[in-house]
Amino acid sequence: MSTLQELFRKGRQALLGVAAEPSIEAKVIILKSTGLTEAQFFAFPERVLSRRQESAFGRMLNGRLSGIPLAYLTEAKEFWSLPLKIRPGVFVPRPETELIVEKVLELSSRQKEIIIDVGTGSGNIALALARELRHARILATDISARALRLAKFNAFMHKAPGISFVQGGLFKALKGLRLEGRCDFIVSNPPYVPAEDWKTLSREIRDHEPKRALVPGKTGLEFIRRLIKASPTYLRPGGYLLFEIGQGQRQDALCLFDQSWSELESFDDMRGIPRLVKARKT
After folding, report:
1. Domain range annotation of the chain
2. Given this model, what pLDDT does residue 77 score?
3. Which range (44-53, 78-87, 253-262) has the least confidence?
4. If you average pLDDT over every residue of the chain, what do you get?
5. Which of 112, 123, 175, 254 is the most buried (most CB within 10 A)?
């Protein structure tokens, strides 16, 4: 039987070239498979693990080496310092999407605003905004019933009953809710990967993450075009639309706006890549 330190070294070595941060992932796999806390991990490196714990570690490590995303193995991902439940079939939140939350907070009046989160997935954006904007009314939509079940669970886990979850593609879920011309923000992390780029993505993404949440069509701008066209119906005058874009899409996305919009801006992520587009309804 192995010690914690031995398993950590084994995992880190195996993950070299597979994971961007092999040391961190090796530690996460150990904690998840053994049930130990981070404090125990650091305090007792010579602790001998049971055969059951070592076997669980081996199974999870092998799963990661086969290309399964770590978030699906651990069923967890942190976003905006919120631990979220993640399940296969639902898009794994990325750190760069926190930029949407940052910009909404900069623009918010902190009053009783109405926010629509289109394509909520695990509910990460809606939950982050609900935590920061206590007076806001947030409606989160998704075409996937599986995603909405997970988002509802995350909302329950974080005691966020103020979020309403509605199933439907784009704005179909909002029909009959009398939100036309009343919304302060519409936010979205839409699918934006061009069809021809799908095969260039990592095996980890292609084999395990939902293609529908990533690829909207040939150009990658199909969903964004529909989002821009439909949003003025629901935004109040002066309301904001904010959505994520892919690398190299900034100019094409900005060209989709007409005279119905003002204050067009894009913002870079931490790597200096244009990642967020903001526009205001005139």
Report:
1. 4-66, 88-281
2. 95
3. 44-53
4. 94
5. 123
Phi then psi for residue 51, to 5 deg, are -60, -35
Q: In degrees rounded to 5, what are phi and psi of residue 102?
A: -55, -45
Q: Residues 123-138: pLDDT tens digits?
A: 999 999 999 999 999 9
3-state secondary structure string across the chain: CCEHHHHHHHHHHHHECCECCHHHHHHHHHHHHHCCCHHHHHHCCCCECCHHHHHHHHHHHHHHHCCCCHHHHHCEEEECCEEEECCCCCCCCCHHHHHHHHHHHHHCCCCCCEEEEECCCCCHHHHHHHHHCCCCEEEEEECCHHHHHHHHHHHHHCCCCCEEEEECCCCHHHCCCCCCCCEEEEEECCCCCEHHHHHHCCHHHHHHCCHHHCCCECCCCHHHHHHHHHHHHHEEEEEEEEEECCCCCHHHHHCCCCCCEEEEEEEECCCCCEEEEEEEEC
Class of domain 4-66: mainly alpha
The CATH number assigned to the domain with range 88-281 reads 3.40.50.150
Q: Residue written as tokens 């919304």? A: 183
Residues near 119 by beta carbon (within 8 Å), at least 6 away in sequence: 141, 142, 143, 188, 189, 190, 191, 213
CA–CA separation, 242 vs 234, rounded Å? 14
81-102: b (≥16 Cβ within 10 Å) or e: ebebbbeeebbbbeebbbbbbe
Amino acid identity for residue 134 in this structure: R
Q: Are strands 76-79 and 137-142 parallel, antiparallel or unpaired?
A: unpaired
pLDDT band at 56 (very low <50, low <70, confident <90, very high): very high
Cβ(134)–Cβ(203) below 8 Å:
no
Tokens of 54: 């070592």
